[in-house]
Amino acid sequence: MNDTPIKTLEHVRQFLNGNKAIEFSIEAKEARYAWIQAMLLRFHYRQLGKAEKGLVLDFLQKVSGYSRIQLKRLVQQYVQNGRLHRRQRTVQGFRRRYTLEDIQLLAQTDELHGTLSGPATKKLCERAWVRFRQSEYHRLAGISVSYLYVLRHSSRYRHVRQHFDKTRPTVSRLGERRQPQPNGQPGYLRVDTVHQGDLDGVKGVYHINAVDEVTQFEIVCSVEKISERYLIPVLEALFEQFPFVILAFHADNGSEYINQHVVRLLNKLLIELTKSRSRHSNDNALVESKNGAIIRKQLGYVHIPQQWASQLNVFHRDHLNPYVNFHRPCFFPVVSLDATGKARKRYPYEAMMTPYDKFTSLPNPKQYLKPGRTLQQLDDIATAISDNDAAKHLNAAKFTLYQIIFEQKPRTA
User: Fold this and answer.
1) CB-hemisphere CA count at 13 Å for 390?
2) Structural domain span for residue 263
3) 9-42, pLDDT tens digit by residue?
């Protein structure tokens, strides 16, 4: 390196500011040490003040390419000994205890036994060496369980054998795991998804089924895909169709509902999110029973392509949902305590009524209605046509819709 123009600290400042020219060339480490020592001698480093020493260190760091810590170590050596001496130290590294053959043997053992746990695999290696005298296991017999997992993650092991684990569930902190307690108040929804099947690799439409726990008021909507782009607008339309204020939203642990987008929507509407508890299969039993009694009975199991979701939503809004809520009777439980204090549910015939009749039977039902909704509006819907006429309109609309859907499919001979 041609550093002859650098003779004073002012030249150093000009160089650091980019106003001083200097020619660089690649040097060996010994020459670099010698150059640093020469610069320290040239500027009389030991006699400089703190600011000037910092300036010299900036210059040495920029030119040498060494880090600040490395330069300080070299300067300290110069201050103590008056010279810099490079000490060559070649580190051989850790001695390899387990060879590539041992890793390959471990992979073969895992292949034979189906990748058992670490302790079980260690025991197999011990038995192979101690009991069956298989000499190739003499090193693996003494391996620790923790280092056995290290070898399993090595590149050599993965080159010999690839192991794929099933998808592990992730713990979501969204929602609270508990059963809702409506205490006789409507607005506590149980929600589930029903898939209308696949056909030749083509996905079918998804139905979103929401049932109020107290009144069994039910709204069904359809969506092309259960992603936030499609699901959020459908959920907003679903909430709008309920005549009363929604207070709680209970679903199973499916990611279509337990995610940040749904939580943001529910928070905006001041709706509480809860999810089913583990080992409590009846937490969402109400809506699951409605999946079979309503959706499967009315729409069947036949594959319906996703592009018909909007037409299905019109059918649900105009025919299926009004029929289910205003014209189809449901059983409602009557809870009593037995001699042991256990709650027993009975479903007497006298307690059978439509969801709307159940809603009007609540004490002061007007208090639960949304702003702008009145009981008179709901009465007009309930009494506009008879139950039989509502069923006829439902079946006719379903027949027309299915004709439109399935005449698009190519017919087989």
Assistant:
1) 20
2) 185-332+383-406
3) 888 787 777 765 555 554 577 888 888 888 888 8
